[in-house]
Input
Amino acid sequence: MSTASDSGAQRRGKAPAGERVADWADGRLGVYSLAKANMRKIFPDHWSFMLGEVCLYSFIVIILTGVYLTLFFHPSMEEVTYHGPYVPMQGVKMSEAFASTLDISFEVRGGLLIRQIHHWAALVFLCGMFTHMMRVFFTGAFRKPREINWLFGFLLFFLGMMTGFTGYSLPDDLLSGTGLRFIEGVFLSIPVVGTYISMFVFGGEFPGMDLIPRLYPVHVLLLPGIMLGLLVAHLILVFYHKHTQYPGAGKTEKNVVGMPLLPVYMAKAGGFFFLVFGVIAVLSAVATINPVWTIGPYRPDQVSTGAQPDWYMGFAEGLVRVMPGWEITAWGHTLVLGVFIPIVLFPLVLFAIGLYPFIESWITGDKREHHILDRPRNAPTRTAFGVAWLTAYFIMLVGGGNDLWATHFQLSINAITWFVRIGFFVGPVVAFIVTKRICLGLQRRDKDKVLHGRETGIIKRLPHGEFIEVHEPLSQEQLHTLTQHDQPDPYEIGPAVDENGVKQKIKPSQKLRSKLSKGYYGEDNVIPKPTREEYHEITSGHGHH
Ligand code: HEM
Ligand code: HEM
Output
């Protein structure tokens, strides 16, 4: 018996192979309607939107190279004696993990390159996430409806840091062992339960025999698995919300101006993947990273000088290094504040970043959807916060490498420590004030440009002898870009007494919110946009240039 679809297939008997495969897939997965709905989706274009892609592609490179490394890496702390080709280590006792890392570097074909690509890709990945996060922050792309996606992204950043840390702890070299010793100190500084946690994690006294076999599944499976799930959710949300766009002519909160996903964006993205992969591969081929054979295997009685964590852990390292070594001893127990305060501060700072979108919308009371990005100068307080945070981060990075700064620049380590201690409190405040002034200055400049046009640099002499500079009026597109932004009023508490004469109870949180809101939108924090009347008055010829 022949069915309708059979006869359809007969009619298309001569259809090209590709079409037949597509038909086959459509019959089972409904790909046509899926593709029709999504493949022409429009993506706005801007170089800064490539930063998310850098994260994506470096993550793929990490997974590909990580799988290759698992084929040769032995996550074991059993002691072996080295007899491999690296002569300086002949006869040295080391863990199997360290010996297999040496094997990967010197005996496995392409092993060293793959190890280096894995490590460089991890550095690029975290750097990409950091910069992508800054792009999202400074342009306000985290505002409604993208707060949850910011949260997913933030978790990716946090887990990325943890995965990187567990990764560079695996080779069991002197550097990674020193890092793990640091973690032991962190556990031990936790009051009451610290010793138990440390014993539980290390399976007894540090370092024990269990640590590397335990870290291994966490590094290759657990954390990357969670990250993969979050990443898919992150990208689905980018797709679902549609991408934001920079302000410009023809762009509104209700449309998306850009190029279709297929073929233009896909082609660009495919090419960009190979570019990212290529750059990481070249870096890995020419720049040594983590040469564990020069560092040597971990021995608890040794510490190498110049020990540095990877850059993303530098903030935490810096906090611990510059913190005064305070201790409180009571009832036979010691509370090591010198370590405990930094390890509480570190997650608190991270937590504040994760919750920032919710904090800002509470302060400003802004519950509207935003698909047009802010120009950072038009949100001076947010921009200033971001720069203050970056300043604190980089000052702590100096603290985390205080020994290297001292040896490289012939400086006293105490002087650097004091510089970082003072800088941590003063630097962000100065950065905040300066950034805010710059933003307001730029807003003034925008206002000036709208009202008086662009300075052309052409000086003319008028018949009566006066010199003037010729100003060129802006195009309609430029005028739109410079004036499209909102300037909302700050949150007001409302009258203390209502219309019936009843005293309103004002909560302290309302007072705080009103104060903070003035800090965002108050008089001193915005330069009012030129009004229509001002513009017409000046451009109708009465203005004097
Ligand atoms: C594995 C790491 C990550 C990957 C692969 C990734 C990927 C992407 C991609 C491809 C986009 C669209 C293109 C773009 O705007 O750059 C995007 C957008 C976004 N990402 Fe990420 N991201 C990651 C981490 C983060 C982090 C750490 C944050 C913030 C804490 C974040 C927050 C966002 C937000 C809010 C958007 C929407 C932006 C918009 O529509 O303008 N992402 N992400
Ligand atoms: C975000 C994800 C990841 C990051 C940031 C990361 C980072 C790192 C880093 C920095 C190292 C130290 C490399 C060295 O210099 O020796 C490392 C080692 C390692 N990673 Fe990953 N990794 C990630 C995911 C993975 C995955 C998914 C796998 C496996 C499927 C994997 C397998 C390994 C193995 C086997 C080692 C030890 C080999 C060695 O150190 O030479 N990694 N990882």
Summary: The mean pLDDT is 91. Residues 4-38 form one domain. The pocket of protoporphyrin IX containing FE (ligand 2) is lined by residues 62-63, 66-67, 69-70, 73, 101, 104, 115, 118-119, 122, 125, 160, 163-164, 167-168, 170-171, 219-220, 224, 227, 290 (CB under 6 Å). Strands lie at 42-43, 79-81, 93-95, 259-260, 328-330, 333-335, 454-461, 467-472.
